[in-house]
From TrEMBL:
The SPIN-DOC-like zinc-finger domain, residue ranges: 21-63
Protein name: SPIN-DOC-like zinc-finger domain-containing protein
Pfam families linked to this entry: zf-C2H2_12 (PF18658)
SUPFAM superfamilies listed in its UniProt record: Ribonuclease H-like
Amino acid sequence: MAKRKAENRSFLDKWEAEYPVCLVCGVNVAVSKEYNIRRHYETKHHDKYKDLDMTQRSQKVEEMKRSLVSQQNMFKKATSQSEAAVKASYIVAAEIAKSARPFNEGEFMKKCMMKVCDLVCPEKKQAFSNVSLSRNTVADRTCDLATNLYDQLMEKGKYFVAFSLAVEESCDASDTAQLSVFIRGVDSNLCVTEELLGFKSMHGTTTGKEIFEEVSKCVTEIKLPWDKLVGLTTDGAPAMCCKKSGLVGMVREKMREENCAGELTVYHCIIHQEALCAKALKMEHVMTTVTQVVNFIRAKGLNHRQFKSFLEECGSEYADGTYHTEVRWLSRGKVLNRCFELREEICQFLETKGKDTAELREQKFLCELAFLCDISSHLDALNLQLQGRGRIITDMYAAVRAFKTKLCLWENQMLQGNPCHFPCCQSIKAQISTAVFPCAQFAEKLSVLAAEFSRRFADFDAQKCKFELLSNPFAVDMENAPTNIQMELIELQCNDTLKSKYDAVGAAQFPRFIPDTMPQLRTQAAQMLSMFGSTYLCEQLFSSMKMTKTTHRRRLTDEHLRSILRISSAQSLSPDIDELASKKRCQVSGLGTSD
């Protein structure tokens, strides 16, 4: 065996002209040695080609090679068309999943493609017909795409130096509890991967223990070590944040069992807390009155039609009023703004319906409505700043700190009778006497709101020093920094080259340029980059879930729902369609038939 390996046998190009074995009869020679080739040629083909000189032999070889290549190309073309059809079916299945459409949309799309093909490129009809888009095929393709994404995430997870989880639970259209778990991992190059780790259907109770078991399965199945878990962000529900029987307490207990050296940092979603802070204003009576007015106009079709006609007759800037939905973060501000802008038209319309509008015309109510409208607009602006994928927790914390500073400024200005940042209040104040406008009352509410922000975001304030290490390491007081990074921090702050790089690329990109000679700083940066500031991704996924599993698709299986949501939520990863297509064989399905 060693002798054969050492011989390194291969077919020599010169044998093509001297002994055209394969080109003549297609027989495969067992061992590609010169002796074997010569014996085969002299035994089988010598008499036929013995009269040809070398030039004629070369011409004959080229002719035979062209014939062989032509045959091979015919098979290659068929294979290429087959692979293209499979790839096309995967691409269409991915788009169907992203748009939350049912699987049988593939059959409708194929009918449309065939009709377009008949008009635009009839010669390509067979190629389009080969694309399999039956309901079963689209369902299978969707599962394949989701599995491919999960495999990619598992491969990336091998290189995570730190990761955090965002966990939230909600119910679908069939009242099944769905648990979404997102992961944000950072590798040694400080590249962030933010993807759906698991989406679990919970058909029984949803206690802290059961939620922990599902989260633990997600972490175990992807083979992530618990000692690299640095952060956990939840929606603040008791089953999530209870220190003993909740998810947080059980995760910490699991990390102690695994002898994890690091400490788990737990956050209550910033966006949820921002929305809860607004309740400290205690102005529900204003919102209740506005909601009743809107419901009277919008609940009955006749009232709604007449109101829209009334606005059109008045030449109003707005064509309609808007509903208030409690679960939508920005709904309240939009409803209040619309009602404030249409306050006169609303009163006139209600009077035509015989409704009492005395409360709506009271100066006190108008002042409170204006204030609530303005402060809700400011809160909505903060909410929008905190939303979005890939948000770094330090930036989110900076936005909250800025808002707290604004509250202090607004409080002082309101005490001075100068609501310059409250346009609705300015409008009302111009219509009534300055003495009637309750500046002191509104200043007190701003003070209460600022205190509520400080109370609810105390856990973020406790991490201020760590946040500064990521957002601006050159301004951190080294005496207040953790002892394990103090030496590296001094070297960093004294390095003018790194300071110039920080000024050039900004805080978000700078951690990637921290040299490997500062491993503690890189580790600290990786941990901070992996932190979730909110459960925004979970909320966004649940919105997609409600569009996917509607009352008309309640029979959608857990596996299919999970696959659809994994595809639609993918951001850092994309399915490897070439790899998937290489493992499949084209199966042509007719229109309206199943594979």
